[in-house]
Amino acid sequence: MATVLNRKDFVSNQEVRWCPGCGDYAILAAVQKTMPEFGVAPENTVFISGIGCSSRFPYYMNTYGFHTIHGRAPAIATGLKISRPDLDVWVVTGDGDGLSIGGNHLIHVLRRNVDIKILLFNNRIYGLTKGQYSPTSEVGKITKSTPAGSIDFPFNPITVALGTHGTFVARSIDIEQKHLGEMLKRAHEHRGTSFIEILQNCSIFNEGAFNDVTDKALKADHQLVLEHGKPLIFGKNRDKGIRMNGMRPEAVQLSATVTEKDLVVHDETNLSLAFMLGHFEPPLPTPVGVFYAVSRPTYDGAVNQQLVDAKAKQGAGDLRALLGKGDTWTVN
Amino acid sequence: MAVPPEAAGQAAESHESVAPKPHLKRDQVVIRFAGDSGDGMQLTGMQFTSESALAGNDIATLPDYPAEIRAPQGTLAGVSGFQLNFSSNEVFTPGDEPNVLVAMNPAALRTNLEDLQPNAVIIVDCEAFNESNIKRAGYTSNPLTDHSLDKFQVIEVDVTKLTSLAVHGLGLNNRAAFRCRNMFVLGMLSWLFQRPIDATIISLKNRFKKVPELLEANIRVLTAGYNYGETTEMFASSYEVPAAHIAPGLYRNITGNSATALGFVAAAVKAGRPLFLGSYPITPASDILHDLAGYKNFPVYTFQAEDEIAGVCSAIGAAFGGAIAITTTSGPGMNLKGEAIGLAMKVELPIVITDVQRAGPSTGMPTKPEQADLMQAMYGRHGESPVPIIAASTPADCFDCAFEAVRIAVKYMTPVILLTDGQLANGAEPWLLPDPDKLAPIKVEFATNPEGFLPYARDPETLSRPWAVPGTKGLEHRIGGLSGENLTGNVSHSPANNELMVRTRARKVEGIKREIPPIEVFGDASGGDLVVLGWGSTFGPIREAVKRVRAKGKKVSHVHLRYLNPMPGDLSETLKRFKQVMVAEMNMGQLLKLVRAEYLIDAFGFNKIQGRPFKVSEIENRINRVLEG
Ligand SMILES: Cc1ncc(C[n+]2csc(CCOP(=O)(O)OP(=O)(O)O)c2C)c(N)n1
Ligand code: SF4
Ligand SMILES: [Mg+2]
Question: How many CA within 13 A on the CB side of residue A303?
Fold first, then answer.
């Protein structure tokens, strides 16, 4: 592409209308900043969303956009991508949109490996409908619909995605602009369904839900940044790591006796390791980065290949011949 | 002896004495083949249909599948049937009461007996009437000997034994030999109705290309059946149903589902765009998916989605990208699609939703037809959500309606609902092949000019908005389900704007009226004592019934609706010319309600909700009663 794109090419003329302090602003900023680097023109980019605060996203992108119905964005994106493999198709969804009402579509698009990029904004709450608990809310959460505390056991978006054998599964954080930008780039490079869970602060109904990984004072000790081929090290002084104790992971303090060599080395192609990391919960640190990335044929690619093969074998469709197929007879 | 009763009344006109047995002419015969699901009755029926078509008859057929895939052998639930009406006159239905029944076992006899004409011919495989089969069918005594069939003409043929004799020496095991029984029946009936078996032999050769011993067995059994008819004393005569006067041209036999699939392919070819089907399997719609999956080279994309919602949503996505996008389903799936259809209606993207209606409510009787989804198609979405609806009248008409649905969808940028039903889907009739060059044009013009581009600007005549597909530089825009501003489509909560948009979309759909051809009244356009109004698959039985009463001088006419939303502009004035309006439907009176509400016409209904089409005689009797007052 000859013309160089910049951020402005991706900013629409619509006023952004999230609440002050909402993490969605940061995600929008990261996307608008990173997209020009992909070299894909705005007209070849499509953002499709469901319903929720997060799903307002397409209105603010100066690309093609489709704000659809609750939970169905992956299905709409699948139809578009199959029939228009030339387009760069992104889905924006929320923890309710993608994991509750649209959970079925999400698992199937991941399983099929349709070449679309899914950004799931996880604020662990229903924002748009004013603060009910979501499928990612922790047990015991007090909300308007759960005055006595929620009793649902939550979904973990990462392990759900891994459970479908999704081919690219990552996590990032709304305000970690650099990291989020890198994850967007990795997602875009990947051929197949890319799934990024973005931890997103809902300043109105779930303020501080991810404080441990976003607070400047706390985050270094609670974030575990995954890097392929590198040992799992974290901590303000990078002096803690993850070691296997038999079949169980444990956080250890590095010392003269416990060295980097004892630590688990991240391997993005190891599904078992990805599952293990996906299940990390405090007191273990919260992993961010690419849990899993492997290559598998894409659904849209295979569908279109079947069309090419059919044409090679049978020739281009001939309507007259098709209508007259089978036993025919002539009436004089 | 074996006199098809319908013809029996008319006395035998021609005795040709060249053959050793007399040869009687008949106008029309209705045969039903019935047996266990494994007995090959569908194949036998279809092959006999082909033979009849080649003989120049007009025909209509209807299979009757058991609800269970493999019900236990010999049970009532396992009976599979195939009915064929062939005639030297124009045929409108698969026939009311069969005058010939082939029953391969006691269960097949028992499930079909009540449908037969009095005096019908029943051909049975007597060896299958053994004690255990008789018991399994729920009989306490053998119907062949207990005189319960005295009002019929029963012909007992030892089909099983004769079949095994015919394949003797071929080394077939018992089971394989048993499975050739249907060919004996086909051969016998081919002789009885003087159908050459050459075409069947050719088709057997194709079918058993790779298994020469089975080919040999089937041909032997088929021929044995034919010869049996000719030489034994079983049949005193054979019959001839002379060719019908039908429009000249090239024909093929087609089911409604196949015709629907072809109509969509033809529309996509005419539009010069790929066809995209997003669908989730459901009886009786799945065959459209199966057919289209075989037409990839056109190109046709078929996507078997995870559910009906994803089916319609994927179609919406494909329509956004510029494909001719469709989804297919039946009643329960239609419920699931409602919200997404509303989205397509609001964003104004063209998709066609086919509902192959089946008997509800809930899971109902999945293999049986009904017409009870009309109100759902009309009103089954939240908010003001007008969607054009068209309905097919016969299996072959499904082609034209599918094509027309796409044409309207694209021209008006709107979802369109196509209603067919289980009867049309599986029923078949001869189809005069259309000339692709003569099909109506379907013009697809994507917006390309960024100058002053507005995604919701409208064509002054059709009120249609531009189709601006991703990939077009300078036309980047956002659409969505939220109320949108006139012209720009930008999110707007302006009260006045909302009303403007709701009314505009309603006017757009209403405007399709301009294109609907004037109503063709079958009968007296100027009016009369009674008009029977119908839609969908009731076309056949209503038309035949009206024909019959008119032949007796009654002032009764038939109006059939293809366009249900909007309805033809001249419907009200047409109906008002008649003293009485009767709406015959396979539901509790859905079109009836619409017509009464819309036009203040004091119409009344004639309704049947049995998962079975109207019999011609039922409508005929009802008309007569109405006329008697
Ligand atoms: C069919 C349907 N059911 C319910 C709703 C109401 N609804 C809108 S958004 C939403 C939850 C959104 O939560 P989430 O996906 O987490 O998005 P967030 O607002 O938190 O970004 C609900 C229940 C709807 N719009 N449509
Ligand atoms: S409710 Fe929460 S998620 Fe929604 S816009 Fe406000 S802060 Fe953001
Ligand atoms: Mg949320």
Answer: 25
Residues of chain A short of pLDDT 50, as ranges, are: 1
Residue A205 CA: nearest ligand 1 atom is 20
- Is the CB of residue B53 less than 8 Å away from at least one CB of chain A? yes
The confidence score (pLDDT) of residue B14 equals 42
Ligand nearest to the CA of A71: 1
Is the CB of residue A202 below 6 angstroms from any atom belonging to ligand 2? yes
How far apart, in Å, are the Cα atoms of A117 and each of A12, B331, B598?
20, 34, 49
Q: Kindly state the tokens that stand for A223.
A: 């974030």
φ, ψ dihedrals at A117, nearest 5°:
-110, 120
Predicted ipTM? 0.98
For A101, which DSSP code?
I
Alpha-carbon span B219 to B422, nearest angstrom: 33
In the sheet with B351-357, reading across from the earlier edge strand, the strands are B300-304, B275-279, B324-329, B351-357, B416-421, B389-391, B563-565
Q: Between the CA of residue A179 and those of A265, B99, B286, what are the distances in Å?
A: 20, 79, 47
Residue B283, pLDDT score = 95
How far apart are alpha carbons B165 and B554 in whole angstroms?
Answer: 56
Per-residue model confidence (pLDDT) at position B3: 30
Kindly provide the b/e burial profile for residues B365-376, where b requires at least 16 CB atoms within 10 angstroms of the residue's own CB.
Answer: bbbbbbbbbbeb
Contact across the interface for B262 and A332, Cβ inside 8 Å? no
Pairing of strands B556-561, B428-432: unpaired
Sheet holding B153-157, edge to edge: A328-331, B249-255, B428-432, B58-64, B79-87, B28-36, B100-103, B121-125, B153-157
Strand partners, B450: none
Instruction: Work out how many CB contacts closer than 8 A connect A with B.
Output: 208
Instruction: List the single best residue of A32, A64, A305 to mutate versus B (max B Cβ within 10 A).
Output: A64
H or E element: which one contains B102?
Answer: strand B100-103
Which tokens sit at A139? Answer: 């047990």
Which of B584, B574, B569, B575 lies closest to B622 in space, CA to CA? Answer: B584
DSSP line for A189-225: HSSS-EEEEEE---TTTSTTTTHHHHSTTTHHHHEEE
Select from B200, B262, B298 the residue whose CB has the most chain A CBs within 10 Å, as the one to mutate to test that interface: B298
Residue of A9, A42, A11 whose CA lies nearest to A29: A11
Of the candidates B475, B381, B87, which has an alpha carbon nearest to the alpha carbon of residue A41?
B475
Q: What does the block give as tokens for B406?
A: 């796409």
Cα–Cα dist A133/A149, whole Å: 9
Q: Is the dihedral of CA A311, A315, A320, A323 positive or negative?
A: negative
- Among B7-21, B252-266, B317-331, B378-392, the least confident range: B7-21
Q: pTM of this prediction?
A: 0.95
pLDDT per residue over B533-544, tens digit each?
999 999 999 999
Pairwise CB contact (< 8 Å): A327 & B475: no
Query: Rounded distance, CA A124 to CA A134, Å?
Result: 6
Strands B249-255 and A328-331: antiparallel
State which residue of chain B sits closest to A305, comparing Cα positions.
B296
Write the residue with the smallest CA distance to atom 4 of ligand 1.
Answer: A70
Is B301 close to A327, i.e. CB distance below 8 A? no
| Geometric angle at alpha carbon A177, from A29 and A52, rounded to 5° | 50
CB–CB of A66/B314 below 8 Å? no
Alpha helices in B127-247 (DSSP H): 131-136, 159-166, 174-178, 181-192, 198-207, 212-231
pLDDT exceeds 80 at position B103: yes
* Alpha-carbon span B245 to B254, nearest angstrom: 19
Q: Which amino acid would we find at residue A276?
A: M
Contact A78 B310 (CB under 8 A): yes
Note the pLDDT tens digit of each residue in B586-600: 999 999 999 999 999
Output Rg (C-alpha) for chain A, integer angstroms: 23
